[in-house]
Specification:
Length: 167
């Protein structure tokens, strides 16, 4: 495996496996790398990553991917086996093609994107949206979560604006 065939938009190290990181991009694949080696050593196919839309949950070693497409936008994968664990259904009222996604905690993810220019929090146990902001002036292109507080803060980048939300 010599790497991606098209643009790469996201990279994430796995803190449980030193020197190991994953990348995702336009070629509909997530590839596994060892930073001491010149080539990818594993991959899985599926996600169409167009932003910072891969993240690793360290306790369970699961990957969340967000895709810029209409179906199977959010998917959960097992890091070790590279097997898909689930497709997370979209909210029927407000849907989005994702540019970014992160784990909020081991049971919730936060994703943002275009179409309805939204950011939403999804409970993976019930597979329901439990919070969202939609109809922003432009798409949500980046998010980051400050995990150190009892009530985490989420920074949201949309167009020329940055929004802060406390959970």
């Amino acid at each position: 495996m010599d790497g991606h065939r098209f643009r790469v938009f996201s990279a994430k190290y796995n803190v449980n496996y030193p020197n190991t990181f994953i990348t995702g991009g336009w070629d509909n694949s997530v590839q596994y790398w060892d930073d001491r080696q010149p080539h990818a050593f594993n991959k899985f196919s599926g996600p169409h990553v167009c932003g910072d839309a891969i993240d690793i949950e360290t306790y369970s070693d699961t990957i969340v991917t967000g895709s810029w497409r209409k179906d199977n936008v959010i998917q959960i994968w097992d890091f070790l086996s590279a097997k898909k664990l689930m497709d997370v259904p979209q909210d029927k009222r407000h849907q989005s093609q994702l540019y970014c996604i992160q784990w909020l905690n081991k049971e919730h993810v936060v994703g943002g994107g275009s179409s309805e220019n939204l950011v939403h929090i999804i409970d993976l146990r019930s597979q329901n949206t439990i919070g969202q902001i939609y109809n922003l002036a432009q798409g949500v292109f980046c998010i980051d979560i400050e995990h150190q507080l009892k009530n985490p803060r989420i920074a949201i980048g949309s167009g020329h604006f940055v929004y802060f939300v406390r959970c």
